[in-house]
Amino acid sequence: MARPGPLGDLRLEAYRAPVIEFSCRRCDRHGAIERKLLVKTFGADVSFAVLRRRMAMGCERMQTPEGDKCGAHFPCLGVTDGPDGSQS
Fold this sequence. Notes:
The chain is an alpha+beta fold. The protein is built from three helices and three strands; from the N terminus they run H-E-E-H-H-E. The two termini are 21 Å apart.
């Protein structure tokens, strides 16, 4: 289930750039994927919170006893610090 907050509210259909960037500050994971491929795979109504969890799948920091400590984010959406995309 997507968390409430900026990424939970923002849907892929609202972001029109042809490429979506993805990065993690903690594990140095990064990449870019075509928006049309994401729409084809997940649908245009998918939230960025769901996309974040899918793209960070396998991250051991995603589910810790203290909560989500993964640094995954979308640089193309602006600087965000929190796991739900909120500023901390």
